[in-house]
Amino acid sequence: MGARVLVVGLDGADWAILDPLLAEGACPHLASVIEQGARATLRSTVPPITFPAWSSFLTGVNPGRHGLLDFVAWTPGRYDLRFVSGSHRRVPTLLERLDQAGLAAAAVGFPGTWPPPRLKQGFVLAGFDAPVAIGPGPDFAWPRPLYERLVRRHGPWVYADVDELKVGPRWYRGARRALLAGLRRKARLAEALLEERHWDLFAVHVGETDTAGHHFLALHDPASPRRPERVDPVAAGTLRDVYCAADRFLGRLLHAAGAEAVLVASDHGMVGSSDRVFHLNRALHAGGFTELRHPGHRARLGDGVRRALLRHLPARTKEWIFRQLRSTASRMERERRLGGVDLAASAAFSEETGYAPSVRLNVRGRDPCGVVAPDEVEGVRRAVSDWLLALRDPDDGQSLVARVDPREAVLWGPAVEAAPDLYLTLGRDRGYTWTLLPSAGPGPYVTRLEGRARLGGKGRGTVGVHRPEGVLILSGAGVDLPRVVPIWDCAPTLLELCGVKPPPGLDGRSLLSPACPQPAASTPAPVVPAQLRQVPPLTYGPEEEAVVAARLRALGYLE
Fold first, then answer.
1. Is 520 exposed, middle or buried (0-12, 13-18, 19+ CB in 10 A)?
2. How far apart are CA 123 and CA 106, in angstroms?
3. Cα–Cα nearest to 415, from 118, 58, 67, 82
4. N or C end of the chain: smaller count of CB under 10 Å?
5. pTM for the whole thing?
6. Where do runs of H (alpha helix) occur along 101-168?
7. Architecture per CATH, 2-268+468-474+487-555
8. 7-19 pLDDT tens trace
9. Residues 6+ apart with CB under 8 A from 281
């Protein structure tokens, strides 16, 4: 029993957090894997967020080809949104390719794997896109009997979401306990799964590192502008303790798997956010590109009541509310992203998601209230880009926007047309990324979080935010990694480690050097074609959509 190749996905792990822990010997198992192989900076997708990034990790192609650009997708020809799942991915994952080659692959908890593919040899437990509220049930694992047997012995898998509507001292303590307990439970279940049979590839996702980074980075970093004046020492040590617990998790799996090769990767990195806020639609309004609606008294009152209720209601009650909302979950998200924009009068606008700063043009013939003529698109894109790059911090004159990329410069493939027209890289405020929050009507496009608002929570952004630079570690004699590795190189590398030749047509390439010993095989390694998946997308039902939306809110991705 055990595994030939072991993969551990440390969601949101960052070398800037990990390196000091390695230097003091606090993460010996990660240090051992590095010593037996090599390390690199992993370059994430654009945007560097969970669904696109892990899908590129699993498929070997960029988001423009696999099609998962965000947690939601726009309905063509409309301003409507729908929540998406792994069934919307257009390219097979390495799990399906290994299964087609007759090999046994197990993947536990990776986002973007619901519904689980019905592997003949393997096992998949879906990630947090599984539409269940308290851990996945048997419908979200394949094969079901194996998961049911594991649950009876070890309890269910738990997702790393924590309700962050009530940030404060008690919340920090409770979130810390939940994250550390979740890692211990996951280790027991993963060890039990490794005892079931010998796996050719065994991959486990750890979301606790990402959640801890989002909510505890300001407490970990003494210089953070979002650090509270009084810090509970136990809470301040949470990010460190979660990383160390993830290292112990890895150690247990190394012992149980006895793997020939080990790959540890994050989907993106993590950096602190500023207490200063950039309102992108207000900036576009100042440039004459966006017309904003003035929020009425009833809208402000309703939003305040909603936040107050959600702040004080128990988690199960909030879950029940979101279930009762049923088909309104996607409409609520659409209203949050677009409700403040007068679309009929706007040439461009932003959805103002903090995790993916971007701008969409409102194009005539493509969008229902299109303003920009098709032959004017390039000129308007250049004008928007020039305007944003010229914006300066009124305090120190530094750029608010460091870079603007047209979508075709960072994505390629059939899904590019569904992407925002421009992707932004925000500037830094004293070394911290600007906090991007929605524009509540016209007003200044630079504001500051005051008092308790600096701690984070709904409507305030998280204290830790994604950055493209992540973590990659690969063990093996002769492994020589380049300094920076695109995330889509991981899938072909893992295929080759399992003795399967990567198919032609992937964006990624195998990282195995000629000196790296190849897996012994009595027959030539099978080649699995790079065809598109022939599986129709599975749409969430109303209750399922509401549950997924609630989890994304708890994780801090949705307001």
1. exposed
2. 5
3. 67
4. N
5. 0.89
6. 144-154
7. 3-Layer(aba) Sandwich (3.40)
8. 999 999 999 999 9
9. 290, 292, 340, 341, 349, 350, 352, 438, 439
